Amino acid sequence: MTERPTLRRYMTRHSALDGLDPNLIFLIEDIASACRVIGNSLRNAAFEGNHGLVGDTNVQGEDQKKLDVVADETFARICENSPRLAALVSEEREEATWLKEPEEGDYLLYYDPLDGSSNIEVGLSVGSIFSICQVEKDGDRTLLKKGRAQVAAGYAIYGPAMMLVLTLGHGVDGFTCEYGTGDFRLTHPSMTVPAKTREFAINASRYRYWQSPVRRYVDECIAGTEGPRGEAFNMRWTASMVAEVHRILIRGGVFLYPQDTENAAKGGRLRLLYEANPMGAIIEQAGGAASTGTMPILDLMPDDFHQRVGVILGSADEVNRVAEYHAQDRAAG
Ligand code: AHG
Ligand code: MN
Ligand code: MN
Fold this sequence. Notes:
Layout: H1 7-18, H2 22-43, E1 53-57, E2 63-65, H3 66-79, E3 85-90, E4 97-98, E5 107-115, E6 126-134, E7 152-158, E8 162-167, E9 172-177, E10 184-188, E11 199-201, H4 212-223, E12 234-236, H5 241-251, E13 254-257, E14 270-271, H6 272-285, E15 289-291, E16 308-309, E17 311-314, H7 316-331
Helix pairs in contact: 2-3, 4-7
This protein binds 2,5-anhydro-1,6-di-O-phosphono-D-glucitol (AHG) and manganese (II) ion (2 copies).
């Protein structure tokens, strides 16, 4: 029978094999617990009066849903117990939350408690995204770090099944929450993104704002067998990055939320520290690529917690093609 170790067993094995820090195991277990509780809140939202808006906007100036707040509070309340967690940075909080005096090796948690929240009432998949970095030396309160500094990253998807997808820097593994026990068990070991694909995901209603490299790429996909690609492409858009990334991990594809003329002043749409970086790490660890259009996302030095960025990620051949179109556009002046 196929062995499906629990998340705890999987991580304790890593601890024995490659020295995974037990404090990181505690933190990831706390994140998994938070996601389990958020999954329950989502399922019970109609009974608990948790559908709809809070009536306020968050730090991003976006409408806050009641469940955005519930999910944020759940993450913070559960993860605050982690003994070596020094600080939290959340999409829903303007400021970082410091939990202790930072010591070398302490952990920093960046999270989007509920991603794709416009999908909740429609009954489509939503998720939670997290990224973990470490304090470099005692007393160091630096929270702005490149994505390459992440020691772990992942997401939970609340869909037909609840899953946790995780990278510890050696590939990507997927765990399904078993109905009944609540255990996350390894069901999708060594997830990989196929290099080639015929599927792309973009919010096409923004066509009028796109820069020419993105228009060129999408126009060529849409031209299908009669166009320069000579292949028929399919388009997808769920408005939930977690669902898009999950689909790409399962069957390939490319996801674009580029910087365009409408969002350029803000840097883009998606947030670097708790959306683009963790998803970029997952996709790279699964053999795909993640680019801003001009550079690998993970090499970008942030200058703000809530910084936004253009995101093109998924199958390496397609991401490299879009990056190449950007390079040709720059070269042409
Ligand atoms: P969030 O719900 O955390 O604000 O994130 C939503 C993001 C992302 O998940 C999705 O790809 C994108 O916003 C959807 O944007 P559109 O509204 O342009 O479709
Ligand atoms: Mn989000
Ligand atoms: Mn969110």
